C-alpha cells in the first residue's frame, strides 16, 4: 500500500493529473499502470495535460496564481513585439520580456521551460500507453496528446532557438518524445521541427475518425492540421501550406470558416463555441485567476491592472481604416470627446533611452476646420500630410518639423494614453476572463496568404486571401488590395505581414512573423522600452536556456548569455 501511494504521488508531482486527489483514485488503484490500462484513466491524465497549460503549478516549493505556463509563455512571445506599450516599470517578469532584458535565471525563462516539459512528459505518458489501432477512441486520445506535445515543442523552440529560416543546423531545444528515456541534449532546430511535423502528421491520422470530445478546448484533426500549416510556414514549405489549407477546406469557401462580420466583435468572448476556433485553452469562471489572467494587464474595469496598452504603431495601422471593426478590440479611454490634444515623444534621461510623451491641449478652428495650439500667444497650426498611406500630423516649432499624434482628449498613465485591449476580456461577463485562442481559421487563411506571397506568380492569390480577412473586418472597395491597388506597399509580402499584424494583434504572433521573415522590429515609439530598431539577427531575439537546465544537464547556452 505504501508503494502504491508513492507511485501515485510521483504521478501527481510529474503533473500527469492536474488536481491529484486520492478520492478520485483509491490508493490501491492509483498506480501508473492503472492509469495506463484504463481508458478513463488515460482520459483523466489527458485532461490533466490540458489543465497544465492554465493551472498554477507548484514551482520550487511555491504555488502562485502567476505560475501559469499559458501566461508566462504568452508574455515571452507577445510582450517583446511592437503591438503594446507598457506604461511603467514593474518588478514582474513581463517587464523584462518587454524590454529585452534577458538572463538565464529569470523566473519566466526558467518556469516556461520547466512547465513546458512537464506538459510534454504528461503527453508522453499517454502516448506511450496507447498502441495504434487498439480502438478508435484510444487512437483519438493519443492524437490529442501528440498535438499537445507538438504545440509545446513548437512554442519552446520559438522562444529558445533561432527561427527555422535562419538555418536547420542551429541549436534547438531538447526533444523529449518518451516518458521513459529523457534526452538531455539539444537537438538542432531542424530536428525539432521534423519531430513536430511527424507528431502532427501522426495526430491527424489518429484523429481522422471519431469526433472532438467537447468544445474547442479539446484538440481535433482540424486543430492539428491548422497547427501544421503554421509549422510548414515556419519551415518555408509554402506549397505544403497551400495544399494543406485546401485539404482542410475540402471544397468549402474560406469565408464559411470565419465568424461573420456581425458576430466577429464578440468572437473572443465566445471563442470556445465558435466555428472559427481550432484550438483554445479552455477557461471557466472556476479557472479564473483574477488579476493573474492575461486580460488583467490590458484592462482596468474595476478589477484589472490596466497598465499595458495598444502601441502607437498598432493604432496607426488600425487608424489607416478607422471603420475596420478590428479596431473595436482597442478601447480608447477618453476624458472629453469634445476636446483635442496632440502628443509627441520626448527624449528621456533613462539609461535605456526610453521616451515619454509631451501632451499639449489643442483647439479646433470651426470656421476653417483645422486644429491649432497656442505657444506664447502664437497660433501654431496642426498640419497634415500623407506618408505611405497614413495621414500624419506635424507642427513647426522654431522652424523644425515635429511629428505629432492628434486625438480626442484621453486619459493617460505616465504620459501614455490608455488604449485598453479587450481580446482577453468579458467571457461570461467577466472582464478578466477569456479562453485564449491558440489556433483559428483566420490565421490559417493568412498562413496560406504568406505562402502564396513567397511563390513567384502567386501574388494575386495572396491578396485574395488577405481580402477575405479584410472583407470580414468590414472593409470593401478601394480598401481591398489588388496588384493594381497596393495602397502604398512595395510588395505583397509586406501587405500580408501587416494584415497579420491587424488580424492577429495581441495573440502572440507578431515577433515570430517579423523575425521569421528576417525583418527588423521598429520599436521607436514612446514607452518605457529602449527607443530602437531590433535587428532580426540580434541574439537577444531569443531567450537564454535556463540556468537550472544548464546546471543539471550541461547543455550549451545560447550566444551572448
From TrEMBL:
GO terms for cellular component: cell outer membrane. Keywords: Cell outer membrane, Membrane, Signal. InterPro entries: SusD-like_N (IPR033985), SusD_RagB_dom (IPR012944), TPR-like_helical_dom_sf (IPR011990). This is RagB/SusD family nutrient uptake outer membrane protein. The keyword Membrane applies. SUPFAM superfamilies: TPR-like (SSF48452). Residues 79-233 form the SusD-like N-terminal domain. It is found in: Cell outer membrane. Residues 300-561 form the RagB/SusD domain. The lineage of its organism: unclassified sequences, metagenomes, ecological metagenomes. Pfam families: SusD-like_3, SusD_RagB.
Amino acid at each position: 500500500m505504501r508503494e502504491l501511494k508513492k507511485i501515485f504521488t510521483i504521478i501527481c508531482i510529474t503533473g500527469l493529473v492536474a488536481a491529484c486527489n486520492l478520492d478520485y483514485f483509491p490508493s490501491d488503484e492509483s498506480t501508473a499502470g492503472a492509469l495506463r490500462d484504463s481508458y478513463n484513466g488515460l482520459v483523466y491524465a489527458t485532461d490533466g495535460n490540458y489543465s497544465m497549460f492554465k493551472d498554477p503549478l507548484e514551482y520550487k516549493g511555491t504555488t502562485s496564481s502567476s505560475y501559469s505556463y499559458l501566461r508566462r509563455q504568452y508574455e515571452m512571445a507577445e510582450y517583446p513585439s511592437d503591438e503594446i506599450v507598457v506604461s511603467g516599470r514593474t518588478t514582474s517578469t513581463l517587464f523584462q520580456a518587454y524590454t529585452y532584458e534577458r538572463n538565464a535565471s529569470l523566473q519566466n525563462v526558467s518556469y516556461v521551460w520547466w512547465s513546458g516539459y512537464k506538459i510534454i512528459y504528461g503527453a508522453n505518458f499517454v502516448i506511450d500507453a496507447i498502441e495504434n489501432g487498439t480502438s478508435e477512441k484510444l487512437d483519438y486520445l493519443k492524437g490529442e496528446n501528440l498535438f499537445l506535445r507538438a504545440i509545446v515543442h513548437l512554442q519552446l523552440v520559438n522562444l529558445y532557438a533561432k527561427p527555422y529560416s535562419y538555418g536547420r543546423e542551429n541549436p534547438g531545444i531538447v526533444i523529449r518524445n518518451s516518458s521513459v528515456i529523457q534526452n538531455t541534449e539539444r537537438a538542432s532546430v531542424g530536428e525539432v521541427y521534423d519531430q513536430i511535423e511527424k507528431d502532427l502528421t501522426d495526430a491527424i491520422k489518429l484523429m481522422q475518425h471519431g469526433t472532438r470530445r467537447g468544445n474547442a478546448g479539446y484538440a481535433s484533426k482540424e486543430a492539428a492540421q491548422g497547427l501544421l500549416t503554421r509549422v510548414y510556414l515556419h519551415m518555408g514549405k509554402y506549397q505544403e501550406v497551400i495544399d494543406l489549407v485546401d485539404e482542410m477546406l475540402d471544397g468549402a469557401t474560406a469565408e464559411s470558416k470565419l465568424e461573420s462580420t456581425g458576430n466577429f466583435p464578440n468572437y473572443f468572448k465566445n471563442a470556445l463555441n465558435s466555428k472559427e476556433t481550432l484550438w483554445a485553452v479552455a477557461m471557466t469562471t472556476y479557472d479564473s485567476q483574477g488579476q493573474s489572467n492575461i486580460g488583467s494587464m490590458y484592462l482596468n474595469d474595476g478589477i484589472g491592472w490596466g497598465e499595458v496598452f495598444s502601441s502607437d504603431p498598432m493604432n496607426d495601422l488600425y487608424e489607416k481604416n478607422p471603420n475596420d471593426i478590428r479596431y473595436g478590440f482597442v478601447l480608447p479611454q477618453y476624458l472629453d470627446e469634445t476636446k483635442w490634444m496632440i502628443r509627441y515623444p520626448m527624449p528621456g534621461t533613462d539609461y535605456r533611452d526610453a521616451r515619454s510623451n509631451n501632451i499639449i491641449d489643442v483647439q479646433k478652428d470651426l470656421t476653417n476646420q483645422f486644429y491649432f495650439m497656442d505657444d506664447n500667444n502664437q497660433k501654431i497650426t496642426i498640419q497634415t500630410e500623407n506618408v505611405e498611406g497614413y495621414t500624419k500630423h506635424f507642427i513647426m516649432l522654431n522652424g523644425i518639423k515635429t511629428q505629432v499624434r492628434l486625438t480626442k482628449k484621453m486619459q493617460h498613465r505616465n504620459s501614455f494614453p490608455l488604449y485598453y485591449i479587450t481580446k482577453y476580456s468579458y467571457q461570461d461577463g467577466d472582464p478578466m476572463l477569456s479562453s485564449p485562442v491558440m489556433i483559428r481559421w483566420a490565421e490559417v487563411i493568412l498562413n496560406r496568404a504568406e505562402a502564396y506571397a513567397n511563390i513567384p506568380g502567386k501574388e494575386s492569390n495572396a491578396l485574395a486571401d488577405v481580402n477575405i480577412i479584410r472583407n470580414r473586418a468590414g472593409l470593401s472597395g478601394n480598401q481591398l488590395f489588388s496588384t493594381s491597388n497596393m495602397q502604398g506597399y512595395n510588395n505583397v509580402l509586406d501587405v500580408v505581414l501587416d494584415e497579420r499584424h491587424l488580424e492577429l494583434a495581441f495573440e502572440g504572433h507578431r515577433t515570430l512573423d517579423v523575425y521569421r521573415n528576417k525583418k527588423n522590429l521598429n520599436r521607436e515609439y514612446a514607452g518605457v522600452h529602449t527607443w530602437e530598431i531590433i535587428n532580426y539577427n540580434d541574439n537577444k531575439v531569443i531567450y537564454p536556456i535556463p540556468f537550472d537546465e544548464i546546471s543539471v544537464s550541461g547543455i550549451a547556452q545560447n550566444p551572448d548569455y
